[in-house]
Write a structure and sequence with these properties.
CATH architecture: Distorted Sandwich
Order of helices and strands: HEEEEEEEEE
Structural class: mainly beta
Strand order of the largest sheet: 3-9-8-5-6
Strand content: 15-25%
Length: 241
């Protein structure tokens, strides 16, 4: 793509999303050991901009892996080389902040070869999650760890086997969950992990399939809740290596 067409595409993308930027969001910036990279350099750009996925509870498609249209941008997206123990982060596009209540997760999936060709149909394992950091009796929006945050970071486990990976960041917005209007915001970065890690990541899940559509945690009424229906996101735990 030429420099002119890249700039034009970016400007159009901004115009399409400006009207809802305060309510919706998307992770477009990868942070490697504190250093921010340009928008979409290492993260596959999706085609539905900052709009959430709401199809999950009625039957998710393969777009639930890295978002709609992301496979089309995979070969225009670079692969970040990182070592085990790297502090990896994601930042929201356009200086956005999360202003929806809900949990956060990050998953990784090892590609069988070139990650730019990989559609995410293999196994995934969870490397990070945050849920509630506040008093929670009753729950307030500000009790969620991700509330008002622009960046989420985790440490790549030291025993992560070398290879190329998709790294999927996801925030789940629960303000409409009671009526089944749960919102999912997610994108995937492309990375290559170096070193000689020999860990055995798990539990392993498939996407779609990592969440039970009937999980009350994805459907409950959060406002005024006196009890929280789960202490992790999904049935699978975080792998720390």
């Amino acid at each position: 793509m030429t420099k002119f067409s890249t700039i034009a595409a970016g400007a159009l993308w901004g115009l399409l999303t400006a009207s809802t930027a305060s309510a919706h969001y998307v992770y477009s910036i990868l942070i490697v050991d504190g250093q921010q990279t340009p928008d979409w350099q290492y993260i596959r750009q999706n085609s539905n901009n900052i709009q959430p996925h709401k199809e999950f509870l009625v039957g998710p498609s393969n777009d639930f892996r890295c978002n709609a249209g992301s496979q089309n941008s995979a070969h225009n997206t670079e692969v970040a080389t990182i070592g085990p123990g790297t502090r990896l982060g994601f930042k929201l596009w356009n200086n956005g902040q999360i202003l929806h209540p809900g949990p956060m997760t990050i998953h990784m999936s090892r590609a069988p070869g070139d990650v730019r060709d990989y559609d995410g149909s293999g196994d995934w394992f969870k490397v990070y999650e945050d849920i509630i950091c506040g008093p929670q009796y009753p729950l307030r929006d500000t009790d969620w760890c991700s509330w008002d945050q622009a960046v989420v970071e985790f440490t790549v486990p030291h025993s992560t086997p070398p290879g190329q990976y998709l790294v999927r960041v996801e925030h789940i917005a629960l303000h409409g969950a009671e009526s089944g209007d749960t919102e999912f915001y997610f994108t995937c970065a492309q990375v290559e992990v170096t070193g000689n890690g020999n860990g055995n990541p798990g539990p392993l899940v498939q996407i779609p399939g990592l969440y039970d559509p009937n999980d009350p945690a994805l459907r409950f009424f959060i406002y005024g809740a006196q009890a929280y229906p789960y202490n992790q996101v999904g049935a699978h735990t975080v792998w720390s290596g």
